[in-house]
Amino acid sequence: MRQRQAAITALAEAVTQRRLALHPFAPLAETTAALRALPGIGDWTAQYIAMRALRWPDAFPAGDVALQSALGVRDAPRPAQAAEAASQAWRPWRSYAVLRAWARGIPPAGATRP
User: Fold this and answer.
1) 1, pLDDT greater than 80
2) What is the pLDDT of residues 19-43, one digit of tens each?
3) Interatomic CA distance for residues 6 and 103, integer angstroms
4) Rounded to an integer, what is the distance from CA 23 to the centroid of its chain?
5) Any catalytic annotation for residue 43?
6) Active-site residue among 43, 58, 64, 75?
7) Quick one: CA dihedral 35, 103, 88, 84, positive or negative?
């Protein structure tokens, strides 16, 4: 719980001090890198913020367990890599596929299971 609080505090401070801008026109690579540099924020959180706050249509939190399960790759030797590979057909709209997979718990249309 303290790690989550520290992450939220660090994020709020970065935004307040204008070291980080969270809006749809923010530069994606720089913003996600800055997010991952904050304590307690990893790739999943950076990708989620890219989906929601930055409105990036191709964000893809490949390490998400529920997403991996929905794609049928959870038991793969490297599930995040398998999810990433499975998602290539949906570029540049992978955020929409993620939301559908989370909502339904099933592979998005056009998904291929490795």
Assistant:
1) no
2) 999 999 899 999 999 999 999 999 9
3) 29
4) 16
5) no
6) 64
7) positive
CA-angle at 51, arms to 38 and 82, nearest 5°: 90
Q: What is the secondary structure of 78-101 as a DSSP string?
A: SHHHHHHHHHGGGTT-HHHHHHHH
The contacts of residue 83 (CB under 8 Å, 6+ apart) are: 60, 62, 63, 64, 67, 68, 71, 73
28 token code pair = 């994606």
Extract the tokens encoding 3: 């790690």
Kindly report the pTM of this predicted structure. 0.81
Q: pLDDT per residue over 60-102, tens digit each? A: 999 999 999 989 999 999 999 999 999 999 999 999 999 988 8
- Alpha-carbon gap, residue 44 to 50, rounded angstroms: 10
Residue 15 is inside which H or E element, if any?
Answer: helix 2-16
